[in-house]
Write a structure and sequence with these properties.
Shape: globular
Strand content: 5-15%
CATH topology of the domain at 6-239: Aspartate Aminotransferase, domain 2
Protein name: DegT/DnrJ/EryC1/StrS family aminotransferase
Keywords: Aminotransferase, Pyridoxal phosphate, Transferase
CATH architecture of the domain at 6-239: 3-Layer(aba) Sandwich
Structural class: alpha/beta
CATH class of the domain at 6-239: Alpha Beta
Radius of gyration: 21 Å
Low-confidence stretches: none
Number of strands: 12
CATH superfamily of the domain at 6-239: Type I PLP-dependent aspartate aminotransferase-like (Major domain)
InterPro entries: DegT/StrS_aminotransferase (IPR000653), PyrdxlP-dep_Trfase (IPR015424), PyrdxlP-dep_Trfase_major (IPR015421), PyrdxlP-dep_Trfase_small (IPR015422)
Organism: Ruegeria aquimaris
Helix content: 25-40%
GO molecular function: transaminase activity
């Protein structure tokens, strides 16, 4: 969880002094400047700030033209919003198993593809990137659009590229518990100008009429309101400057913890990019071992983490939408969709796995001491 400090307070104070809080008015343009800085930082062609990671996913799906009659492949281990956003645009999520890295299993991805599949959402969980080198060729072979969910890996790289910039379009979250935060917020990133034009349309019901350079006004569709304020933009500009140092601290502490636990013989889960390790998971032989280890300070069993496990997605499993007439499953003309027994391999892995807190804000001597305690 990223912390806020004096610099954020001063940045917000400047917005208050200016008096303009709405990003579309002529103020300090903190949101616009943040988007430019985020695009430069990540190497994305364009970035768009939105109100949450969920909003970013909805905008990305709408940008890709996903809707009724479509299926979208989603991992069994992710925050509920990855699948929920799919349903909110009228499509149906199809669950894919995770592998030993706790990210989407490329082999099961192939097995779950149907003629109705239009997109795949690989999710980089716990600062641990997916195997994009295998996922991208599969997507290209089957004509799937790749919508990266990098909400839990903001600023993390995979094979030298930032997570969220590898697929067709990517999403970030700036929730309180993410690598950088403004309380609630998110972003959409892409190198494809057409997708970004549609994402921008999706995030603001009227921005197409206020923004110069709209390529085709006749193509403007009804959007929503996922804008952020100039206050959030000011905070995010400061947080982005802090992000490289914060992730550097995270990696150094994860390295200390990993070394201690490996030396003691603990089963450290594999990582899809060993050069970019910013998250630590242990996968035990039995569920009982995981439960016992999770009782230690700085550890938690992943299966206990509520809405990140698909069996806890009650409204989705029970197919309860806000109105009975809004039923993506009926629109698709079939019974496909998440069920409690969709991904048994993932449930087994999650029951046997523990995440270890990187203790990013703790002094290194304390981290070394706690690493020894964990490994004892």
């Amino acid at each position: 969880m990223s912390r806020l400090g004096v610099r954020e307070w001063l940045a917000v104070g400047r917005v208050f002094a200016n008096g303009t809080l709405l990003r579309t008015d002529d103020g300090l343009h903190t949101c616009l400047n943040f988007e430019k800085e985020l695009a430069v930082y990540t190497g994305a062609g364009q970035a768009l700030a939105v109100s949450s990671g969920t909003a970013a996913l909805i905008c990305a799906l709408q940008a890709c033209g996903i809707g009724p009659g479509d299926e979208v492949l989603v991992p069994a281990y992710t925050w509920m919003a990855s699948a929920g956003a799919v349903l909110l645009v009228g499509a149906v999520p199809v669950l894919v198993e995770v592998d030993d890295t706790l990210c989407m299993d490329p082999d099961d991805l192939v097995a779950k593809i149907t003629p109705r599949c239009r997109a795949v959402i690989p999710v980089h969980m716990l600062n641990r990137p997916c195997d994009m080198e295998r996922i991208m060729p599969v997507a290209q072979q089957y004509g799937l659009q790749v919508i990266e969910d990098a909400c839990q890996a903001v600023g993390v790289r995979y094979k030298g590229r930032f997570c969220g910039t590898i697929g067709d379009i990517g999403t970030f979250s700036f929730n309180q518990h993410k690598n950088m935060t403004c309380g609630e917020g998110g972003a959409v990133l892409s190198n494809t100008s057409g997708l970004m034009a549609r994402a921008r349309n999706a995030h603001d019901m009227g921005i197409g009429f206020r923004t110069a350079g709209v390529p085709d006004r006749d193509a403007i569709f009804l959007g929503s309101n996922y804008r952020i304020s100039e206050i959030q933009g000011a905070i995010l500009r400061v947080q982005l400057k802090k992000l490289p140092r914060r992730l550097s601290k995270t990696r150094s502490r994860v390295a200390i913890l990993t070394k201690a636990l490996k030396k003691a013989g603990y089963p450290v889960a594999p990582h899809n990019d060993p050069d970019e390790v910013a998250g630590l998971v242990l996968t035990f032989d039995t569920e009982a071992e995981a439960v016992k280890f999770a009782a230690r300070r700085g550890a938690r069993r992943i299966f206990d983490n509520s809405k990140h496990v698909y069996t806890e997605w009650g409204p989705i499993l029970n197919r309860r939408m806000a109105h009975p007439g809004f039923s993506p499953w009926e629109w698709i003309g079939g019974s496909n969709g998440p069920a409690p027994d969709s991904c048994p391999k993932s449930l087994d892995l999650l029951r046997r796995s523990c995440a270890v807190n990187a203790m990013t804000d703790a002094p290194l001597p304390l981290v070394r001491y706690l690493a020894r305690k964990l490994a004892a």
